Amino acid sequence: MVQDVIAAHLRALVGDRITDVSSSDSHTVKPWFNGRVEVAPPVTDLTAEGYPLVGGRLDFVDGRRAAALVYRRRQHVISLFAWPSADAPADPAEALGYNLVNWSEGGVAYAAISDLNRDELAHFAELVRARAAGEQR
To answer: What is the CATH number of the domain that holds 76?
Structure first.
């Protein structure tokens, strides 16, 4: 799974397809995933926290179609993947100069990857999780 996430992120960076839908508006990005993936991640506006939304794309992780949200932090690209699975490893990882934060919630596996430093990426993941928990209430 870690290799799939890294490969998907790198394909987006080296290709000309960082997003399939380009928008900073969560009300544009979230519905774009309807019918394209089994589960969509929470699409949250984190601009005020320094992580503006760029858009989203379809990808494949762990043999499944996955939603990928794209955020930025200064000049760094963050891909946030979500796919149906209950067993994402909870340990942060690092490979090829990229940091990866994984978690599972409600039958959905999440992975955030970027060349951001580990602390900033972990902070991003915490913001996403907190906003998602707030939306489910």
So the answer is: 3.30.200.100
